[in-house]
Amino acid sequence: MENYTVTYSESVKGWPSFYSYFPDFILGMNQYLYTFKGGNLYRHNTNERRNNYYGIDYDTTLTGVFNQEPTTVKVFKTIELESDDSWDISLVTDLGAGFMPQADFVKKEGSFFAYIKRISGTENLALRSTQGIGKLLSSTGASTGIITVEFSTPTSRIISIGDELNFSTLISAPNNFSSPVAVGPITSISSDRKTLTVDASNFLPIGSTIPNNAYILVLKDPVAESYGATGYYMEFKITNDNTSAVELFTVDSQVFKSNP
After folding, report:
1. Which of 43, 86, 165, 236 is an S-S bond match for 105, by CB 3.0 to 4.6 Å?
2. Residue 178: pLDDT band by 50, 70, 90 thresholds?
């Protein structure tokens, strides 16, 4: 559990602020905040450097939740910050997680704007970024080389070069399948869309093949496919490490109903 120093505000009759620093004693007097640390007396908010306490720089963080229409599954497409500086943002929904560093934000019409991107390695098979193809007709090749996979019918046009091909095998009937095994990215698709070529450079152990009874599914790149975050709600945490004064007025998101 994290520890905080909390402050009480008479104007709001509550505890609005949480601080990461830990003084030995704290006192408000003559409109200034005084603290003692290690036998030294400090007066706060009297210099231009922000978020520095007892010689240590801290980050500013704020946490909030978007929860409009809580019974509806939504797609959170963007983040917009009405601020004079960009922030790092991490987010969590009931179906996934995402992160946008400060560098992803661009300034548009006075606000900082970025498309929400999921975190690499956070694949969720329940999302639309996963496309099931079905049982393969045949496959040739082995890792760590090129593997060719053939199907009896054309694959969906949603599937594209760069998507990661995975396979699963039936453990017991009717629907008990093994966890997906990643083979590698698709490097080419035949004109009739019945044959996929896969780079199996990282498909281990060496000499591995795709079983003839395997079922094939394809996963989109979770970062490159910036379709947003999906869920009933989205909790976001924004972080800023600037040691100069920064103002933040609003945090907005473009949200619409998910229609899978």
Report:
1. 86
2. confident
DSSP 3-state of 102 = helix
Structure tokens at 237: 């945490």
Tell me the C-alpha to C-alpha distance, in Å, between residue 147 and each of 106, 116, 134, 184, 216.
41, 33, 17, 9, 13
CA 4 from centre of chain: 26
The residue among 53, 140, 131, 59 whose CA lies nearest residue 102 is 59
pLDDT in tens, 179-209: 889 999 999 999 999 999 999 999 989 999 9
In the numeric block, which tokens belong to residue 51? Answer: 């978020």
Distance CA 148, CA 200 (A): 10
Query: Coil, strand or helix: which one is 103?
Result: helix
CA gap 135, 138 in Å, rounded: 9
Looking at 16, 39, 57, the residue that finishes a domain is 57
Considering only CA atoms, which of 98, 228, 224 is closest in space to residue 162?
A: 224
Burial of residue 116 (number of CB atoms within 10 Å: 0-12, 13-18, 19+):
buried
**Which residue segment(s) compose the domain that 29 sits in?**
5-57
Cis ω before 174 (30° cut-off from 0): yes
Is the distance from CB of 198 to CB of 187 less than 8 angstroms? yes
We report the CATH number of the domain holding residue 208 as 2.40.30.270
Report the alpha-carbon distance of residue 257 to residue 34 in Å, rounded.
Answer: 50
